[in-house]
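Methods — Computational structure assignment.
A single polypeptide chain was analysed. Its primary sequence is given first, followed by the predicted tertiary structure written as structure tokens.
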Amino acid sequence: MATPAHSPQLLVVDDDEGLLILMAEALKADSCTVSTARTAKAARAWLDTHTPELMILDLNLPDSKGPALVAALQPTNRHVPFIVVTGQGDERVAVEIMKQGALDYVMKDTALLDLLPTIVRRALGTIAREKALVAAQTEHQRLEREILAVGERERHAIGADLHDNLGQQLTALELMCTALKKDAAPHPKIAKDLTSLGRMLREAITQTRALARGLVPVGSDPDALQFGLAEFAARIDSLGRVRCAFVCPEPVLVSDAFVAGHLYRIAQEGVNNALKHARARHITISLHHPDHTLVLAITDDGAGLPRPRATHRGVGLGVMQHRSRAIGAQLEITSKRDRGVTIECRLADPS
């Protein structure tokens, strides 16, 4: 059994009752479902309870005209695609309406009824392509986020194994060496070897903990990002290569561990770029929460970014862009030669 063809829902708005009926009949003959309205007020009332796939709109209604009519008929919470029908001499108005988002326009002349179905099908094709593109972009973002989430879960699992399994085993071995040193007291060479072995085990424990901390940079608590960034800045500052400070005027809570993890990685990548390439003396990591927007910024006073090349894009900047897209954030990078770089990541309230 064949699948019934889709019948697009249209709204035709025109104050000429005879022409309105003719346009509706022409579109119904082209397998469309058509509703009509003769005034802007009637159209608004219909739009309050319906959402057409396309609106065919006369620009000269008795209770509204031109751009004001378009603004009045577009509900604030959604956008209704539309084409306009205009009389002779109103072409300039039609062009202005196109700038307001009209997909097309058709003149009120003897060819109107012949052209209208074709123009409507063309507009519906444009709408369908735009919807397909949005759906593809949404699916791409979902898959991108899922891939990153899988990577994060694997890193968390490896970090937990390092900390809970390998780290504990190394600690147990160090304790065994300490205990064996007492038994080996009569044998100076063995005692010395056990001391060396204990020292190497302590170094291995330190390295294991550092690896685990790098794989699991922030925990799942809402304040984990704030404390993680503070610890990261203190660790960079302690190296003595640059001065690194963390600025957070008031508590910033991020309950989504996925978002927190990627914001931390963005800060980490930004600082690493400044250390490797910028020859900076000072780096500031700031986190604040103005107007329901979370803002993470990494600022340095280094040499700035080199001039962009058409064939080359920094891997670090690309990774930051990738991570920001995955969490729905906007990343902005500004650079001034010999005056440093600012990387700013803005995200709608994630708490």
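Note: The chain is about 55% helix and 20% strand.
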